[in-house]
Specification:
By secondary structure, the chain is mostly helical. Helix content is about 40%, strand content about 5%.
């Protein structure tokens, strides 16, 4: 769902690469970066691990949260 500039609520359904791009941008709105989708152990660079360590666990949890509404029950 999104809200138009006029304040109207609209719903769209995205698939494929467009849905991936939209999710990527929504992640940025929530402060999530691509590195927040992997654990610190999976990062091969010690400098990246050090830079990402502060707050990484919280951002990683946020990265995997999804707000899904069921239009059949809404």
């Amino acid at each position: 769902e999104y809200e138009t500039l006029e304040g109207q609520t609209r719903t769209i359904q995205l698939e494929g690469e467009l849905s991936r791009a939209a999710q990527h941008e929504m992640d940025h709105d929530r402060g999530v970066l691509i590195l927040d989708h992997v654990s610190l152990d999976e990062m091969s660079n010690d400098i990246m691990r050090m830079l990402e360590s502060r707050g990484h666990e919280e951002r990683m949890l946020r990265a995997y949260e999804r707000y899904i509404s069921d239009p059949m029950t809404a």
